[in-house]
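Bumping with the actual sequence this time:
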Amino acid sequence: MNEKQEKILRSLVELLNTGSKLSLFTLYSAGDANALSKGEVDLLFPYGLFDICKKLWKIHLEEITFIINKESGITVGVKDAIMNSFTLLTPNKKAVINITKFLLLPQNILFVPKLSWKFADAVWGSLEGGDSGFSYYTKRLSLATIYSNCFIYFITSKSHSRLHEVMEKQLSILFKLTKKCS
């Protein structure tokens, strides 16, 4: 990603955090704030809003995998990755909700499971080394499901005080299953 794209993304997130709806108008407003024409914005993001969502998620995953402590073990590493994800998303919660609404439109709905899968793949890819007795796909699908459940709680609740409890409950079931399979 180049410098112009980063500036537009920052401006777009700021606009979304103020309550603006994710739309092409908002994207072009972010471009205007950085002295870029509509044509230049279209060239930087050829797939429009969908491209924006993919780039923002990629940045988020890079941040999470950078701060994962590989020596902490799988259990702690998975918990930390989930909680770190929501810690990073919290300052931009309004933007996250706006982007989620866009992704839940019928034409985009198939992309939503891919986000959770990419999160799970990034986390397991960073923590791989310890064998949990699960296959490649089972590990990722289980974590993607847990992350999705926590994400739904995150965007629908006003307070995040129970987020850790929701995650712990979900993970305890997974880890019990893991022990039975190994």
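The tokens above came from a reply further down the thread. Residues 136-156 form the longest helix (21 residues).
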